[in-house]
Specification:
This protein has 307 residues and is α/β, with parallel strands linked by helices. The protein has ten helices and 13 strands. It has a seven-stranded parallel sheet, sandwiched between helices. The chain has a two-stranded parallel sheet with strand order 7-10. It has a two-stranded parallel sheet with strand order 8-13. Bound molecules: nicotinamide-adenine-dinucleotide.
């Protein structure tokens, strides 16, 4: 098949692009390199630098494409609180631009990388796709909006759409910005450096940490699975892990005794997150296969930054 992946030089986009190229597909990647790095892409991936809002560029890149993976986005929850306009322009505007270009060229299917963040605080766990979203940040609002745009205009224009609500993905190559880094690589690096692990909020918050290879397997399956048009599907590990347990596991896998500090003054975000994976199992034949301990070890082994 012919694929276009937006955000292809990022953490999940590059893992997906390299996997599809390994499987022998034709893969084009688009990324504006605001955070991504094209050097992580296999030479078999045809990379173009550009913005998702550049429709003439999209028209060119979409020729002969069967399926689009739309991953290009600004991805930091705390940053989105500071710059909501930018999150709206890229995550929502970029999605609408992509849909218009797909309609103009005649592409069949688009798969959106949405987020478990759309759920916010729900009474019941695990989180099912039928729960009414309760976004708590501009980032989460942008993902709910992108989902609505994709599904609504997909239906109006006859494009197949699938929204994957990815939970806390981690693994080698995850972007580690100086401010607000994602928790897993940040804790691994801090532990290896002998630094203190600072937890915002209290120690009871939970998250569903899913290894990158599992996310890639769900994304790959979504390109050909039948009867999924218009669906929203969770992609996680199905395991709820408290931040206290994460600290413990980081200490175990790094072999370092770590100090942790709980800063209850700064909010830690949503209190509990765990994905219900029944729909993913039924529609994508998806099963999370990598446990957190193993995923953390793989991350340490495969990511040169942790050597
Ligand atoms: P990432 O930051 O590594 O990847 C995003 C990529 O998009 C980057 O390479 C960036 O340069 C690119 N990009 C940003 N703005 C762009 C623009 N205007 N035009 C073109 N490219 C642009 O993040 P990631 O973790 O790989 O996330 C990929 C997607 O998956 C995002 O849509 C994110 O919201 C979603 N997601 C990620 C997670 C996770 O835990 N990693 C969880 C839920 C959803």
């Amino acid at each position: 098949m012919n694929f276009l992946i937006t955000g292809a030089a990022g953490f999940l986009g590059s893992a997906l692009a390299n996997q599809l190229a390994r499987e022998g597909h034709q893969v084009r990647g688009l990324d504006d390199l605001s955070t991504g790095d094209p050097r992580v892409l296999s030479p078999d991936v045809h990379f173009t630098r550009g913005d998702v809002n550049d429709r003439p560029k999209l028209w060119t890149l979409l020729q002969e494409v069967d399926c689009v993976y739309h991953l290009a986005a600004r991805v930091s929850v705390p940053e989105s609180v500071l710059y909501p306009r930018e999150y709206n322009a890229v995550n929502v505007g970029g999605t609408v631009s992509m849909m218009e270009a797909m309609r103009d060229v005649g592409v069949r299917r688009v798969i959106l990388a949405s987020s478990g963040a759309v759920y916010g605080d729900q009474g019941e766990q695990p989180l099912r796709e039928t729960a009414i979203p309760d976004p708590h940040s501009p980032y989460a609002v942008s993902k709910v909006s992108a989902e609505h745009y994709i599904r609504t205009i997909g239906k109006l224009w006859g494009l197949e759409t699938v929204c994957l609500r990815i939970f806390n993905a981690y693994g080698p190559g995850q972007h580690l910005p100086p401010s607000h880094p994602p928790v897993v690589p940040h804790f691994l690096r801090q532990a290896l450096r002998g630094g203190t692990l600072v937890v915002h909020g209290d120690d009871t918050q939970t998250r569903d940490y899913v290894y990158v290879d599992d996310v890639v397997s769900a994304m790959v399956a979504a390109s050909t699975a039948p009867n999924i048009n218009g669906l929203v599907i969770n992609v996680g590990s199905g395991t709820e892990t408290s931040i206290r347990e994460l600290v413990k596991k980081v200490s175990e896998v790094t072999g370092r005794k770590v100090d942790s500090l709980y800063n209850a003054i700064t909010p830690g975000g949503v209190s509990r997150m765990c994905a219900d994976l029944s729909l993913a199992a039924q529609k994508l034949n998806y099963r999370s296969s990598i446990k957190l301990d193993d995923g953390l070890r793989l991350t340490l082994r495969r990511d040169p930054r942790f050597k």
